[in-house]
Design goal:
Vanadium-containing Chloroperoxidase, domain 1, elongated, mainly alpha, 69% helix, single chain, 7 helices
């Protein structure tokens, strides 16, 4: 059963990774860069500051802890599962389309980019959508584009991306919930 899932994952990866153009090479390279999303992060932080003006520092602490936890869990999974990235998998590495010679580290299960972007997206959605529903498509679009770019660049299988998205969504929702409960309990602020 596990071998069947891995084969489906590899075949889907090869299909998606083969959908390439020189224009998309550059676009997906940008989408995979955390610096590219800098203006969006600044906007998210501004919205959070507007939502929590007096205790903005609690939001910053929660986000830093969330991203640290999300990233370290991902690294633990990579070191535990040791599943080669497509660019390092001997059976298919010659079939993988890469951009700018980027091959990533040796192991790829699960995607840190996917986990971190979905954790940020779900934190923002959970924290802000009571009054700002327009944030939902922006946050999910950002996370989805970042995650898909990793398949396009050849460094993650779809299974890596889906697992990263799930883990990130759990981290983002969990830390937003925890942030709200701690603010209520220790600062007396209702969300």
């Amino acid at each position: 059963m596990l071998e069947t899932i891995k084969t489906i994952d590899e075949n889907l990866f090869l299909f998606l990774n083969a959908q390439q153009t020189s224009f998309l090479d550059q676009v997906m390279w940008l989408f995979s860069s955390m610096l590219f999303w800098g203006p969006l992060y600044v906007w998210f932080l501004w919205l959070l500051h507007k939502e929590f003006p007096r205790h903005y520092w609690t939001v910053i602490i929660a986000i830093v802890l969330m991203i640290t936890a999300s990233d370290q869990l991902c690294n633990l999974a990579k070191d535990s599962f040791m599943r080669f990235r497509p660019t390092h998998e001997p059976r298919i590495q010659d079939l993988v389309h890469t951009v700018n010679g980027y091959r990533g580290g040796m192991y790829g299960f699960y995607s840190g980019h996917s986990a971190n972007s979905f954790s940020v997206a779900l934190f923002i959605i959970t924290a802000l959508t009571k009054r700002r529903k327009y944030v939902i498509p922006v946050a999910l679009g950002y996370a989805t584009l970042t995650a898909y770019s990793r398949i396009y660049l050849g460094v993650h299988y779809p299974g890596d991306i889906l697992t990263g998205a799930l883990m990130g969504a759990l981290a983002g929702t969990g830390f937003a919930y925890l942030h709200n409960r701690l603010r209520e309990k220790y600062l007396g602020i209702k969300s």
